[in-house]
Design brief:
Length: 513
């Protein structure tokens, strides 16, 4: 009896231990009640010009950065230059309204030399097969014939001439014939309306990301400028501030080039890895956890400036090679920081955009990326960002369910669609309590992945809102996003736009944690 009772107690104890081990295994966190209250270190290791515009101040000829989109109206035809059919054919100057076919996107070689990409992704160039001078848009990769200088009228930012590598300016001879044969030395017309080589220039879009800033400064200056930025934009005392103001985690956006530090592919420059090392060191010192977030994947997963794109194209995931390269970046980061006491989670990719990124491609990458993290750590959570754009909020569940320590990242902004244009303060707040709550409920399941509101901000479309309005708005988001099973992260710690600057919001009493 005695023996058997001891033995059954031992048995119960073992079951208890087993259950406990299983539970701990399922849930990488030791404390199931812990919730991430994070702030992103946005604009630090992945440049975003709107966060810190002054970073671009010293770039020569900075109107023409990679990805700048512009349109050209011929002063003689009074019509827009256009790649017929959007590319793959001739170039004309007969379009009355500028749209996609009339928009040219810059690839910058240096402050004087540019290549110009059209809608269908070919490059403007001289046609050697035809008359030798006509302008076409047929080359898929740019060379000498596709390289131009853009010459501004002195003292006038609106008028330009475009010089080809044959030494001649482009001219709109007629609405249907654009050629590169206007003598460069001819200044007799003085940039007037009778000069077929003069075009009125209009910028239609700009990108201010890591590619733009590094390629803009060029190989000699970019390393100095970026290292200075990394050293000064985020410093040790920021971690002290974070730890003393109710936050417990930082989400650190990084770019894929960090994995080939110290000599990443051009134009990116080395040194961001040492900055990330510092972040881990400071995090440890102040008891802050770290989420590494692959914000910029090779080829760009969304075409936005914060993805490291050159010209707004979305090329990520188009080849197996590219996916493998991305998995290698994750593996590099996981292996480097797996044993670090502050590593809390690895986010495999930020904001992949639908339909450019298909759900099947994403699932394939997520499976491989998860395995790459798990080869180095059982403890760190793995965060899977939901696609933006058309998608189903639970579309990742099939690949994620059953993966230990998995988290879905959703981003809730009340800014980027027209739905919010006319909302009042109260409507915004109601939207959070009803619509965001409902969206959160839709992805939250009792034994599925945890949910992370990985980006939100107390900014909206409301004009002239008072401080008290902002306080209520922020509090509503904290209430609702505080229920997310993994936690939330504010975008971002520091920003010239004060409501996007959590440090400013806390110091000025707009947000209290
Ligand atoms: C512009 O010129 C091209 C080439 O002649 C022609 O095919 C096209 O229809 C013209 N477009 C307009 C809007 O006139
Ligand atoms: C310079 O431009 C004017 C006006 O278009 C033209 O009359 C003249 O022939 C041009 N000179 C040369 C050298 O091409
Ligand atoms: C918010 O939810 C309400 C009620 O379900 C719905 O009628 C409304 O369209 C939603 N608003 C937006 C902007 O999606």
């Amino acid at each position: 009896m005695l023996f058997s009772s001891i033995s059954s107690n031992t048995w119960l104890l073992s079951i208890g231990l087993l259950v406990c081990i299983t539970i701990c295994g399922c849930n990488a966190s030791v404390d199931p009640n812990f919730r991430v209250r994070a702030v992103a270190l946005g604009g630090w290791l992945v440049t975003e010009g709107w966060i810190k515009p002054s970073l671009f101040d010293g770039i020569p000829n900075k109107d023409f950065l990679d990805g700048t989109q512009f349109q050209l109206k011929s002063v003689t035809t009074g019509k827009y230059l256009s790649a017929e059919f959007g590319g793959g054919s001739i170039v004309v100057a007969n379009r009355t309204t500028p749209s996609s076919w009339e928009t040219f996107t810059v690839w910058r070689l240096n402050e004087k030399a540019f290549q110009l990409r059209v809608f269908q992704k070919q490059f403007l160039g001289l046609d050697l097969n035809g008359k030798g001078k006509a302008l076409v848009a047929v080359a898929n990769s740019p060379g000498v014939l596709e390289t131009f200088e853009i010459v501004k009228k002195p003292g006038n930012s609106k008028r330009v001439r475009i010089k080809a590598t044959n030494g001649m300016f482009l001219q709109a001879k007629t609405e249907e014939l654009v050629t590169a044969d206007y003598p460069a030395g001819n200044t007799t017309t003085g940039w007037g309306d009778d000069d077929p080589s003069v075009f009125v220039f209009r910028i239609a879009g700009k990108l201010l990301g890591e590619y733009q800033v590094t390629n803009g400064y060029g190989p000699l200056r970019a390393p100095q400028v970026m290292r200075e930025h990394w050293k000064t934009f985020i410093v040790e005392s920021d971690f002290k501030f974070i730890s003393e103001n109710g936050l417990n985690t930082v989400r650190v956006p990084v770019g894929w080039w960090i994995a080939s530090d110290p000599s990443p592919p051009k134009p990116f420059v080395g040194g961001s890895l040492a900055a990330l090392d510092n972040a881990f060191m400071w995090a440890n010192k102040y008891g802050v956890k770290v989420i590494i977030d692959l914000h910029a994947a090779p080829g760009s997963q969304n075409g936005w400036e914060h993805s490291g794109t050159r010209d707004g194209s979305l090329e990520w995931g188009k080849t197996d090679e590219n996916i493998k390269q991305t998995v290698n970046v994750i593996e590099f980061l996981a292996s480097r920081y797996a044993k670090h006491p502050s590593l809390y989670a690895v986010e495999l990719i930020n904001e992949p955009l639908s339909p450019g990124v298909s759900v099947d491609t994403l699932k394939k990458f997520y499976k491989a990326g998860y395995d790459a993290v798990r080869r180095h750590t059982d403890k760190a959570f793995v965060i899977f960002s939901n696609r933006l754009g058309p998608m189903k909020p639970r579309e990742l569940f099939p690949v994620i369910s059953g993966l230990k320590g998995s988290v879905i990242d959703v981003h809730y902004y009340h800014l980027f669609t027209d739905d919010f244009n006319k909302m009042t303060v109260q409507q915004n707040i109601d939207y959070i309590y009803s619509n965001n709550t409902e969206e959160l409920n839709r992805v939250t399941t009792s034994n599925g992945p945890l949910i992370f509101v990985g980006e939100w901000v107390a900014e909206w479309k409301v004009k002239d809102a008072t401080k008290e309005n902002y306080q209520r708005y922020a509090k509503a988001q904290l209430d609702v996003f505080g229920r997310a099973t993994f936690g939330w992260s504010y975008w971002t710690l520091r920003n010239v736009n004060k409501h996007w600057n959590l440090e400013w919001m806390i110091k000025n009493g707009y947000i209290k944690l």
